[in-house]
UniProtKB/TrEMBL annotation:
NAD(+) binds at G229, G230, S231, S232, V233, A234, L235, E236, G324. Residues 14-26 have a biased composition (Polar residues). The gene is TXNRD3. PROSITE patterns: PYRIDINE_REDOX_1. This is thioredoxin-disulfide reductase (NADPH). Residues 1-13 have a biased composition (Basic residues). Residues 1-26 are annotated as: Disordered. Its cofactor is FAD. GO terms for biological process: cell redox homeostasis; cellular response to oxidative stress; glutathione metabolic process. FAD binds at K100, G164, D366. Keywords: Disulfide bond, FAD, Flavoprotein, NAD, NADP, Nucleotide-binding, Oxidoreductase, Redox-active center, Selenocysteine. It is an enzyme of class 1 (oxidoreductase).
Length: 470
């Protein structure tokens, strides 16, 4: 928690009246004085936010609510397959929201099976319609896009559907979809450009493969799908596709859910295998060939072992790449004003108040180096940043112990260190691990496996508290 310093202020008494707001107590109380002191009349805006994802929108709206002149810039560069979307960033359009809704669609399929044990008599000829699902999900996403636009209008935030790029200090170039350029200046900037899916860099990947940018609005059922990658996005997509009745294979070069607790990751994988998902471990694709065009078509994938010279081939209707994401910081002119960027990851190093190496440039969300890539965290970071910059507040975003959930068929929630990280930090002999299998009540009547659900708590003996599990 931040330490609040109590500062004594002495009032200055004068024998004459001053008509300027600087000498008006009411102006101080209403916030007009602070606004006048902070505004830079030489700039078009007090704040320009580049990127309209969750963190950027949160920061922009909070700054506007505090009386600042705010602009947001956002232009989605279409994916190699031509997919683009509206206001709101990754989470709303091609991330958390559509993913969770497709996950829910798969859960409903399992619920239909369970329902018979609870007395529901329904036809055995139940099937899923991909087009109906995606149409409904995209309709909901569109409503969220419109709600964000409405919120910006109501808060008097200027929204410009253009690509922002720094050209010099305090000045950016905004290029719209038609190539028209406009220039704007601001006293402060926030980079909230997020990330986009990474490609393999092999023959046929951008021509024939899709990513999470494309999947949630795909106009046809993907059919037999190869998911490449072991990330949370990879396993989540593989899980709901299998839950919808599709044939799914996951190809992973190393660990599943890297950075997460590996015991838990293997339990997630085991549950997916029981659902019919096939795992190809220690392989990476080296070529993707199109055998037939169509919706879906037919693709041949050639893959190589990461541990030897073995080569394998497979036929699929769709190849979904989920091998990681790259920060969108390379083409926005940061080098022109001296903002330091991690050359390997593209992420922006910041201090504990989200400030970059250039004092008037800040960053929130997935572009920030070393912080959790979670939508609620970005929202909180953006809101608190605006309050510190324009509201006189001191509170900083707490990035420690942010809970997260992986929406695989067996949902995995966690908070704090994975066991491997806890051993690294505290040493194994200083830890106690408590674990148990459990059987959810709703699984009992449905006769689902009683040895699947699992909980684990990692306790440090260094903590000065009594462990309730002893």
């Amino acid at each position: 928690m931040p330490i609040k310093h109590r500062v004594q202020r002495k009032s200055l008494k004068t024998s004459h009246t001053v008509s300027s707001p600087l000498g008006n107590p009411q102006a101080h109380q209403s916030g007009v004085l602070q606004k006048l002191l902070q505004e830079d009349p030489a700039c078009d805006y007090d704040l320009i936010v580049i990127g309209c994802g969750s963190g950027g929108l949160s920061c922009a709206q909070e700054a506007a609510a505090l009386g600042r002149r705010v602009m947001v810039l956002d232009l989605v560069v279409p994916s190699p397959q031509g997919t683009s979307w509206g206001l709101g960033g990754t989470c709303v359009n091609v991330g958390c929201i559509p993913k969770k809704l497709m996950h829910q669609a798969a859960l409903l399929g399992q619920a239909l099976t369970d329902s018979r044990k609870f007395g529901w008599e329904c036809s055995q000829q139940v099937k899923h319609n991909w087009e109906t699902m995606t149409e409904a999900i995209q309709k909901h996403v569109g409503s969220l896009n419109r709600s964000y636009q409405r919120a910006l209008r109501e808060k008097a935030v200027a929204y410009v559907n253009s690509y922002g790029e720094f050209v010099e200090h305090h000045k950016i170039k905004a290029t719209n979809g038609k190539g028209q350029e406009t220039y704007y200046t601001a006293a402060k900037f926030v980079i909230a450009t997020g990330e986009r899916p990474r490609y393999l860099g092999i023959q046929g990947d951008k021509e024939y493969c899709i990513t999470s940018d494309d999947l949630f609005s795909l106009p046809y059922c993907p059919g037999a799908t190869l998911v490449v990658g072991g990330s949370s996005v990879a396993l989540e997509c593989a899980g709901f596709l299998a839950g919808l009745g599709l044939e799914v294979t996951v190809m992973v070069s190393s660990q599943l859910l890297q950075g997460f607790d590996q015991e838990m990751a293997e339990k997630v994988a085991s549950s997916m295998q029981q659902l019919g998902v096939r795992f190809l471990r220690k392989f990476v694709p080296v070529e993707v060939q199109q055998l037939e065009k169509g919706s879906p078509g037919k693709l041949k994938v050639v893959a190589k072992s990461t541990e030897g010279t073995e080569m394998i081939e497979g036929l699929y209707n769709t190849v979904l790449l989920a091998i990681g994401r790259d920060s969108c910081t390379k083409k926005i002119g940061l080098e022109k004003i001296g903002v330091k960027v991690n050359e390997k990851t593209g992420k922006i190093p910041v201090n504990d108040v989200e400030q970059s190496s250039v004092p008037y440039v800040y960053a929130v969300g997935d572009v920030v180096e070393g912080q959790p890539e979670l939508m609620p965290v970005a929202v909180q970071a953006g809101r608190l940043l605006a309050r510190r910059l324009f509201g006189g507040r001191l509170e900083k975003c707490d990035y420690i112990n942010a809970p997260t959930v992986v929406f695989t068929p067996l949902e995995y929630g966690c908070c704090g260190y994975a066991e491997e990280k806890a051993v690294e930090v505290y040493r194994k002999e200083n830890l106690e691990v408590y674990h148990t299998l459990f059987w959810p009540l709703e699984w009992t009547v449905a006769c689902r496996d009683s040895n699947t659900c699992y909980a684990k708590i990692i306790y440090s003996k260094f903590d000065n508290v009594n462990c309730p599990f002893r």
